[in-house]
Write a structure and sequence with these properties.
Layout (H helix, E strand, L loop, with lengths): L22 E4 L6 H14 L3 E4 L6 H15 L6 E4 L2 H7 L3 E4 L6 H8 L4 E6 L2 H7 L6 E4 L16 H11 L4 E4 L7 H5 L5 E4 L1 H4 L4 H10 L1
Parallel strand pairs: 1-2, 1-8, 2-3, 3-4, 4-5, 5-6, 6-7, 7-8
Helix pairs in contact: 1-2, 1-9, 2-3
């Protein structure tokens, strides 16, 4: 069996003593809380190593309730809970960290609010943003998107495999690729040198999330 992605550049202080995600599950906001918990539980059994709660349309109370439910579910598993966009939700549930987009709260403010021991990831959509990210106190960058995908319609042109290779070379931070990644192309994505991947529909829409996660880990 092929080994999964493994972070080799763990210089950031918040990552000392623990591994960052090699297979990041990003939720899609399209399921009930009960369905969400079932999918995440199965996906973690299949090998998911980080869960990012992404709720683009939920109101704050629903977002908060789902964050608490996921935190309880993940307790004791060693799988970090990352909150997408919302630093306030991350603070409220004492999540392991946040993932920010280019239009979200600036990293320096998020770091000041969250403290030094929390994970902060940042989405980047071009080489210029990678250069800017190199100056920031973050734990990883999300290379977005690798391939075109209907779940990320607000991003720039896809990096593609060659663009991912260049991004890996350019970044001083660990790199996670997202966008259109599935079991059929993950081997090619792995070959670019990315430190990890994030998926949405490849697990969230799979009839068997545990098997889907396992296939991604070993593909």
């Amino acid at each position: 069996m092929k080994t999964s992605f493994h972070f080799t550049r763990l210089a950031d202080r918040a990552l000392q003593g623990r591994e960052l995600s090699t297979l990041n599950l990003v939720t899609d906001g399209c399921h009930t809380t009960e369905q969400l918990l079932r999918i995440v539980k199965d996906a973690v059994r299949g090998g998911v190593t980080m869960v990012q709660l992404r709720e683009k349309t939920a109101d704050t109370r629903t977002f908060l309730e789902r964050a608490w439910a996921l935190k309880r579910l993940l307790q004791g598993t060693g799988v970090p809970l990352i909150i997408n966009d919302r630093v306030d939700i991350a603070l409220a549930v004492d999540a392991d960290g946040v993932h920010l987009g280019q239009s979200d709260m600036p990293v320096d403010i998020a770091r000041r609010l969250l403290g030094a021991d929390k994970i902060i990831g940042l989405s980047v959509e071009n080489i210029e943003q990678i250069d800017q990210a190199n100056t920031l106190d973050i734990q990883y960058i999300g290379i977005s998107p690798i391939f075109a995908t209907p779940t990320k319609t607000d991003t720039k042109a896809p990096f593609g495999l060659e663009g991912a290779r260049q991004a890996v070379k350019r970044s001083k931070h660990p790199t996670i690729g997202i966008g259109g990644i599935n079991a059929s192309n993950i081997a090619a994505v792995r070959a670019t040198g990315l430190d990890g991947v994030a998926v949405v529909s490849a697990i969230m829409s799979a009839p068997n999330p545990q098997r889907a996660a396992r296939d991604l880990v070993s593909g």
